[in-house]
Amino acid sequence: MKKRKSVGLLATIILGLLMTMTACSGTTADKPKSDGKTLNLLTWEGYADPKFVKGFEEKYGVKVTVTYFGSSDELVSKLKGGGGNVYDVISPSSDVAGYLVREGLVAPINLNNVPNYKNLAEKLKNMNDVKKGGKVYGVPFTWGPDSLIYDADVIKTPPNSWKIFWDPKYKGKVSLWDDISNIYLIGQMMGLDKNDPSALYNMSDAQLQEAKKKLIELKPQVRKYWATAGELNDLFSNKEVVLAVGWPLTPKAVNASGRNLKEVIPKEGITGWIDRLMIVKSSPNKELAEKYINYVIDEKVQKIVADVTGYGVANKNAAKYMTPEQAKSIHIDDMDNYMKKINFWQEVKDRDKYNEIWNEVKAQ
């Protein structure tokens, strides 16, 4: 009897060891299998920072390379200009994501390989522009506003209107993004989206001509049209500008050196963006790309993404790792209400015409 008890005890110990080894090794999906591969990203600035990419490289034994784009038009141009055979993962904004799906430039994502998807904000997952035929083509990553950014050491009273850009006191001290989104801004000043947010993205010829006139009038005030967030950071750091349209990345980066930039929502409103991660249709690394997407939407990694960018992140659970001040600063503590203040970019059906107007403004 004692011997049988010993045999039974030994079997129990061996079973326990096997269970422990299995638990430590994780699920099959978690196992690194991609040694030596390279994953190529085509993203906005800040979306491939070593602070969170390095962890992925180490976990899966791979290398991540990144190419940045400065506008949605540049992203589409790169993809259509041969980039479809170069890049694996891209980060389009909400103004072109649906177009990429419709044009067949991206592949559906197997959400079984992206278990963290279930933890993303429902409001972001419920948007239909990246869904087709019951399949999902884009996973929400970050979101944010196109705010009015100002140097609070120079402008003591927070601006309440975009009209401050035309104030003669700030001639040569304003910066705009080199992008058609400036037309959206003028559309908001014209009150076009009071009852219909999509009106900014479907302006009539007469409305576009009016926007062009306003933007040409603004040109003497403009120090420079910035092409990248880094360029706008430099303009503020060098005190070349005191007002700009920009993203939360800029006050976060510039204020780290002791400056005092702030951002506000003017009374006319603001536009904003939702950035998704998508997989290029011809990517040879789709499985690795899905692992990457799952990794960077993990709640702990999303906290690091917020640290780096200052942007809102898609995984609300990231707030568990933030101070109340950080959660408030990126509006993750009140995401649904804050999002109601933003007119998020939509696809511009006649994008060529918008680009034509913007190019005419710059050529004047």
Automatic annotation (TrEMBL):
Keyword Cytoplasm among record annotations: no
Pfam family, one: SBP_bac_8
GO biological process: polyamine transport
GO cellular component, one term: periplasmic space
Main location: periplasm
Molecular function terms, GO-annotated: polyamine binding
Places the protein is found: Periplasm
Keyword Ion transport among UniProt keywords: no
Signal peptide: 1-25
Keyword terms of this UniProt record: Periplasm, Signal, Transport
PANTHER family linked: SPERMIDINE/PUTRESCINE-BINDING PERIPLASMIC PROTEIN, SPERMIDINE_PUTRESCINE-BINDING PERIPLASMIC PROTEIN
Protein name (database record): ABC transporter
Organism: Polycladomyces abyssicola
